[in-house]
Write a structure and sequence with these properties.
Radius of gyration: 21 Å
CATH class of the largest domain: Alpha Beta
Number of strands: 7
CATH superfamily of the largest domain: P-loop containing nucleotide triphosphate hydrolases
Shape: globular
CATH topology of the largest domain: Rossmann fold
Number of helices: 17
CATH architecture of the largest domain: 3-Layer(aba) Sandwich
Strand content: 5-15%
Length: 333
């Protein structure tokens, strides 16, 4: 089935065309959560959400529970919504179970599957053929500017074109980071306020410099005391632990990207253009990436994945999880 935009899917819903299976796919995890929230709100409009909305992880137990619930009639509602996250990690046995369900889905359930794969051809066969698919790719250019404007409006603020450009200057297109900065901007101007470039510079510049560059530099230089000090400052300033974690993962992703592009013999200027970053930032990343092999970067990603699982599956203090991650990233690998 051809991939549709979120706007097209919402138009279908407004016309009463509810599909039994949706797939959100692509590397932009923030859009997964944003679109899932929009879909579930529209599909469950007026229905008791506590009884008809459930989210599962796509492990062996999660798939079984999700599909069992999807086959269950909704409670005091026309339909239920079941979300199955992480289907890019499905093993063959679970993929077959999902295929069987999608070939004969419940008409009273909307099953929403989420995958970080950027291509539908990697999905289970039945999903490719029968599901409504919505791409959640990283935003750039006009798409990113439009998203910033819409996000500000949802916070009951208006953002001028010049303010949007100032806001995105030197920013990576990480929607988690951008959303957090937008929340601070909207709180600064107040409800129904107008955001101008001066507001952006007053609110975002200092935190952007500290949160992105200071921590990245400390990690890149493997300066454990400095990295822990910046981490503590960020948390003391009220930065959300998951946001800080997102920044660390972003640093690893950029290191890996610069490493690969450097091996392809691209110069700093070309790399900066490809990644949409200032040249001086790419120069620092290139210097740091020279100290690491691809195999070492893979191991660092595995360390970050283990920290992510700890966040989601344990009650360990977030600062302790982040400090352990920083120690691992700054140590020899």
């Amino acid at each position: 089935m051809p991939t549709q935009s979120m706007r097209q899917v919402m138009q279908r819903l407004e016309q009463g065309q509810v599909d039994p299976v949706y797939v959100l796919f692509g590397e932009e995890a923030y859009l997964h959560q944003e679109y899932l929230a929009i879909l579930s709100q529209r599909l469950l409009e007026g229905a008791p959400r506590d009884f008809n909305y459930d989210v599962f992880q796509a492990d062996s137990d999660g798939v079984v529970e999700a599909l069992s619930l999807a086959r269950t009639l909704p409670m005091m509602a026309a339909r239920r919504v079941v979300a199955l996250q992480g289907i890019h990690q499905l093993r063959k046995a679970e993929a077959r179970q999902l295929d069987q369900y999608v070939e004969a889905p419940s008409e009273s359930t909307a099953l929403v599957c989420l995958s970080l794969d950027s291509e539908m051809k990697k999905m289970p066969r039945a999903l490719q053929q029968n599901a409504v698919t919505i791409a959640c790719n990283r935003l750039n250019g006009r798409q990113l500017r439009d998203w910033v404007g819409r996000a500000a409006l949802r916070c009951q603020a208006r953002m001028s074109k010049a303010a949007v450009e100032a806001f995105l200057q030197d920013q990576d297109n990480d929607l988690f980071l951008l959303s957090h900065e937008l929340d601070k901007l909207c709180a600064y101007v107040g409800s129904d306020g107008d955001i101008e470039p001066a507001d952006v510079h007053a609110v975002c510049y200092a935190s952007r410099q500290q949160s992105i560059f200071a921590l990245s530099d400390a990690l890149g230089d493997r300066q454990i005391p400095q990295a822990l000090r910046v981490l503590d400052q960020l948390l003391q300033q009220g930065e959300a632990p998951l946001l800080v974690f997102s920044m660390i993962v972003r640093h690893l992703r950029l290191l890996w990207s610069v490493k690969v592009l450097t091996q392809q013999r691209q110069d700093v200027g070309s790399i900066a253009k490809t990644l949409g970053l200032p040249a001086h930032v790419c120069r620092q990343l290139a210097a740091h990436s020279r100290e690491l092999s691809i195999a070492q970067l893979q191991r660092l990603y595995q360390v970050a994945l283990e920290a992510d699982l700890t966040f989601k599956s344990t009650n360990k203090p977030p600062q302790a999880v982040l400090e352990r991650l920083v120690l691992a990233l700054c140590s020899d690998v």
